[in-house]
Amino acid sequence: MQFLTRVSLLACLLMPPLASASDEATTALVRTLADIQSVQARFEQTILDAAGDSLQEATGSMMLARGNRFRWQTEQPFEQLAVSDGTTVWVYDRDLEQVIVKPIELDSANTPALLFAGDPGKVAQAFTVRELESDGGLTSWRLSPRSDEALFTELDITFENGAPVHMRMEDALGQQTGIVFRDARINGTVDAGAFLFEPPPGTDVIQQGP
Questions:
Q1: CA separation for the pair 21, 30 (Å, rounded)
Q2: CB 72 within 8 A of CB 59
Q3: What pTM was computed for the model?
Q4: Beta bridge partners of 38
Q5: Helix, strand or coil for residue 106?
Q6: Cα(70)–Cα(41) distance, rounded to whole angstroms?
Q7: Can you tell me whether residue 52 is helix, strand or coil?
Q8: What tens digit of pLDDT does each residue of 34-65 get?
Q9: Mean pLDDT of 112-134
């Protein structure tokens, strides 16, 4: 560690306070998110254990829009759908013929999709942020949840020219989830009906929360 000399320490005391690197990183990330009103993309998801061995791979599509609205559809290796209309979240498993219904507040700390669908200004309330790298059109940030109730301990997000291209989450046990976004389309027209869900006949409905 380098130690400040007496002269440099005095200079620091006389200088006006500057924004911290964390504040600057948060501002830059919020600015990037604020330019996004909707995102549509294909995704490839890989889950690794703490040793780096693959546990699961999945592919699908997603649609996100401000107002806490999202549609996240896994197609392979099995079909699962998570939908939010901004108030309610439905998680539907076709094979189990089951849907879990809960208020979005119960999911807000554990749903990275809400980075793009929620209020960008609340990022600083939910996370500490630092910039990992910035190289040409690529910029990466690391977000650490302030809440002890979050299911992940850190989240890395990379943008290329303003569009998300990669996300990585790690939990307390070292398990990592990596998501690659393909053919991302920013601020295109979205179908509001895509954020609604009606359980098919015969589906077992499980209500969580009030």
A1: 14
A2: no
A3: 0.80
A4: 65
A5: helix
A6: 12
A7: coil
A8: 999 999 999 999 999 999 999 999 999 999 99
A9: 84
